[in-house]
């Protein structure tokens, strides 16, 4: 590993750990890697990447494992239930052990602060594979998918300048936060439709607004989901009950029902709009079967694009260290 390299490792803990220009470069690289799956092999050797899950997974485990293998590395699955990071030993101690052996760490866990501690003490790039707060790899995959279906990346400047992204449902979850930050970095207008009490964290809105002011984007948070969706180029939703919130599922279903993405709501978007869902999807809850299985949905492309986007992120982090 890069003990001899100068500069500190860079990590991808939240969407806005990349600048707008870097996000664009990562998306360009993702498109290149999609066209030629073996174009870059930064882990050839092989070097190991630890991949750890403290919450359920399907897409993220498969796509990161495949990504590291295709980048020439060895994807080392660490069983979160056995490792018990933060319980059996501190995050900081685990970080120092892993950092002596692997080239990067991919971690899905609950608290963003634990991920930050891992990045601070491991000395190697750490990638957020979903926390309670953000799902930035999904954010990149979704931007790539939107680009593919709405005319490609912008000729210059922010990746998707001028396009409009709507998200309806739980505005307080990881996907909502990632859409705000990733969309603003891409120069997109981002409109959320969410019930009162389930809006984004104020500090995330403030960060998205600061980014939007620089990229020429706009941020809107609406109580009426129709106000969020009208005219959108891409319409996204997500489960009403995120991993770890199972005990709240009864009360959440009542609150979120008016925010279901059905055909009537989708009809307010641009006629060519695409529908995104990070999956798993619950038909009849946050999205109707008619919409999820209908002609505007691009969710299978979106799931595939996890692979390409994550290959690009891992490559970017392997090749970019912070100046000392
Ligand atoms: N908000 C969801 C995303 C699942 C990929 C959750 O955290 O469970």
From TrEMBL:
L-ornithine binds at residues 174, 238, 242-243. GO terms for molecular function: amino acid binding; ornithine carbamoyltransferase activity. One of its GO terms (cellular component) is cytoplasm. NCBIfam families: orni_carb_tr, PRK00779.1. It is found in: Cytoplasm. Coiled coil: none annotated. One of its GO terms (biological process) is citrulline biosynthetic process. Keywords: Cytoplasm, Transferase. This is Ornithine carbamoyltransferase. Residues 10-148 form the Aspartate/ornithine carbamoyltransferase carbamoyl-P binding domain. It catalyses: carbamoyl phosphate + L-ornithine = L-citrulline + phosphate + H(+). Its EC number is 2.1.3.3. Carbamoyl phosphate binds at residues 84, 108, 135-138, 278-279, 306. It comes from the Bacteria. The lineage of its organism: Bacteria, Bacillati, Actinomycetota, Actinomycetes, Micrococcales. PANTHER family: ORNITHINE CARBAMOYLTRANSFERASE, MITOCHONDRIAL, ORNITHINE TRANSCARBAMYLASE, MITOCHONDRIAL. Residues 163-316 form the Aspartate/ornithine carbamoyltransferase Asp/Orn-binding domain. InterPro entries: Asp/Orn_carbamoyltranf_P-bd (IPR006132), Asp/Orn_carbamoylTrfase (IPR006130), Asp/Orn_carbamoylTrfase_sf (IPR036901), Asp_carbamoyltransf_Asp/Orn-bd (IPR006131), Orn/put_carbamltrans (IPR002292), OTCase_ArgI (IPR024904). Gene3D superfamilies: Aspartate/ornithine carbamoyltransferase. Pathway: Amino-acid biosynthesis; L-arginine biosynthesis; L-arginine from L-ornithine and carbamoyl phosphate: step 1/3. The gene is arcB.
